[in-house]
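Lab meeting, action items carried over

1. Structure of the three-component assembly. Owner: GW. Status: complete.
Input record:
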Amino acid sequence: MISTMFGKPTAWTTTVLLVVFALMPFVAPAIGEAFYVDVFTRIMIWSIAAVGLNLILGYGGMVSFGHAAYIGIGGYTVAIFGFHDITNGFIQWPVALAISGLAALVFGAISLRTRGVYFIMITLAFAQMVFFLGVSADKYGSNDGLNVWNRSTFEVAGLDLSIDDNMTFYYVIFALLLLVIYVTRRIVNSRFGMVIQGARSNDTRLQTVGVPTYAYRLTAFVISGVICGLAGVLQANFEQFVSPDMMDWPRSGELMFMVIMGGMGSLFGPVLGATAFLILSEVLSGITIHWHLIFGPLLILLVLYVRGGLTGLIGKFERRPPGV
Amino acid sequence: MMKQLLGATAAIALMSSPAFAESIKIGFVTTLTTGAAIIGVDQRKAVDLAVEHIGGKMGALDVEIVYEDDEFNPQKGKQKTEKLVKADDVDIVAGYIWSHVLLASAPVVLNADKILISANAGPSPLAGKNCNANFFNVSWQNDQTPMALGEVLNQRGIDSLYVIAPNYAAGKDMVAGVERTFKGNVVGKDMTTWPTQIDWSAEFTKVKAAKPGAVFTFYPGKHGPAFLKQYAQAGLSDVPLYSVYTLDSLSLPRLQQAKMDGVLGTTMTQFWSPDIDNAQNKRFVDDFKAKHGSYPSFYAAQAYDSIFLIKSAVEATGGKVGDIDAMRAALKKADFASVRGDFRFGNNHFPIQNFYSREVVADADGKWTTKLSGVALKDHQDVYAKDCKM
Amino acid sequence: MDLTFFAEQLLNGVQLGILLFLLAAGLTLVFGIMDLVNLAHGSIYMVGAFIAATLTLWTDSFIIGLLLALPLTLAFGMVLEIVALRTLYARGHMDQVLATFGLILFLNELVRVIWGPAGLAIPLPAFLDGSISLPLGIVYPTYRMFIILIGIAVAVGLYWLVAKTRLGMLIRAGASNRTMVGALGVNVRLLFTAVFGLGAMLAGLGGMLIAPINQAQIGMGEDILILAFVVIVIGGIGSIRGAFIAALLAGVIDTMGRAFLDVALLTFLQANAAETAGPALSSMLIYILMAAILFFRPQGLFPPRGG
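Predicted assembly:
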């Protein structure tokens, strides 16, 4: 299981997708579809969030139905700083990540006392609270949301490391995505990661041998929240807009879909899932406004018949000898 | 390079043979899915009708409309706007029912230095502090209609008012608007959870206890009919109800279907009504009714106007749609026949116009509609215009 | 505080609770017995409302519309179970959440294609329009009283069904030990389909009852679905009694929050702050209640036997 995470079965797909990510800002304008640079920026941001959720969902078996809340918290922190004319990214970003982590710590501490469906529902409840907080915050636009008129600024010793340029920002996001995947890989393969995965199936046994699984699981939950917070920071900067809609419960559902679609518990699966999910909805909604009639059943079929998501599907395909 | 070449060829072609005309491409973003689609579909009907009425031409240019669906979601609306601006390369972007969708999408259009025309949403940031030379609004600013309503309440000598509105940006704007002009006492105020709360039993019990002279409300979309039905069912029919954006040509047929006779005679305020007497409006309303069997909503009226506004600018600039400065100056003049009668743009590119009181009546065929009953505010400009440095 | 006012608000709360119960009952049955998390339960509520509204407009009678819509919703639920949901019983909760999420997208769009985006509005029958006088000087809308009575009748009926009948015995047995019921020679598949249909019918009934107050509307299920989930989680998943008590609790607390919170906050907040905090807090109240209850009782108020 673990050996299949990054490497073998989907190595080809992974490589192809990474190359596509890396070259998109050059390829898209060249073929006259510059618009796709934006599509792929969005895909990478959602990929980061999906990788974050996958850490607890795929590896830890903690089905959080409220992770859009952390995306929202990250995004809103940037927007609110901007609203008060503080655009310094060295302040905005760490504070945003810290608040996301803190929220995940509080919500996780309570949620992890429960199991199964109770866990699904309580994470949802906390996300709804954050959602309603956003709707009620009239100073910050209430449900109309808040524009982020200026992106975060990074000035060190007179050097302006601006992300205003879309191309630069694209590669910053790309680098952060790789970093997040790398960090997740390190976590998963560490002793810590083993405990998280062990606690998924055999919590009690681990506890009896003296492993404080609760603390481990909570730590993973917080890390996952912080990664989603990062996605929120990037989203606010890219979309130049935040609103409560970004943390409404269907967003949490969509994020889960991306993870499942790609294949849970595989490092690169969530990226694959986010890409497939967003491109599919882009293409289908271009065909007909009744695209949910196709999209809905497609999702159901995927859940029902494709075990292990796209990673599983592609893995099966790639394992076959060439030429078959 | 390729594009320039094509453009040049087309220009030459245009000069040599008028049959080979260039076109103007207008992106129109509205809501075509979810329950809110009823508004977007109405707008689309109006835009199609406008294009038909102008014979598909603005000056020498063929009109091409690209509709996009925002799914009632700001992120989606922004993506669709990006597509219009970057992939479809439209000349002008118009539409937008919802403030949040417009706020999310505005930077995309404005950063690309294109013209943006709102056919409904009029959020205060875009009217004031963040007003923009390329942004025009053909509807109204949120606060104006309830301010007009406050005046109507004063005219009718109502001294105590109970306010019920949804707890979100537009809801708060509406309440602030009515409080700005209403001179009596606000004896109670409930801001309800939006958009999930669709039951007002607790609030109505409070109204009964407070015994106000009138109730003011604002519930757009699907909430409106539900609110009105429950209001009547709660035994509040003896407390007069005043509303803004709650009763319109979209909700009235459904209320009639549900036999909610208590709605007849209800007063609201609006910048337009189907019975405003001018040639442009008569043609619009008659043809809309003939084609679709129902009255157009005010959303439709604004959408219809937006096409004629664009046409006036295209003709004034001699079809030089790419010349942003010229287009902007021409749009600013609002030199076209509006269905609401004359209006002009203020410094912030929001209309300075009349607001009327209107009442729900049955027309000659028994169909429920609204009828003008007076002028509430004359030549009114929104209060945010002074924050706009333009 | 004025007693009449308080009592009337209490009735409002009970009425909201009853409505929540109609949804929660089916949800908790399906959950407790088939171990299925069905997000599309709210869509059944919507479909029920649309079917009843259509039939009411056809027959010009709400009661006939309602009586015809009930078996149709039952059938709709059973078909849904056989075609799409049956396969999900053996799956994890997450697969179920996702597949039924897909189903929501599909059903919403389907309803829109069939009935259009405007929704359907229907009148109240004349004998239920108006208000009735109750003790304490309460004047209460007749129709809302009608909802309360129907809800109580359903609760009693369900209690009788589960506690006293053979079907109820099988349901209880099925919840704690599925294989054993199968070994007894009972057609478990059929039993599950029947239970799902019953739950669907109850949800549909909720939608039908609300149709004359609001209207049949796309997406109406999602607004209330999350609340219904909160209710069954508070009550303890699988417990009808828990669902009933939690539904009333949620209904009353939500209503009381809307009725009194703004005044209560004024005692220790500035008018301006109270005006902002009041609505914010009252919209979060039910979720706060749920988090608090799960904090102390991670399996809800009435945890089912044997998990």
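2. GW to write a short summary for the group page. Key points so far: Chain C has one domain: 11-122+138-296. Chain C touches chain A through 43 residues (CB under 8 Å).
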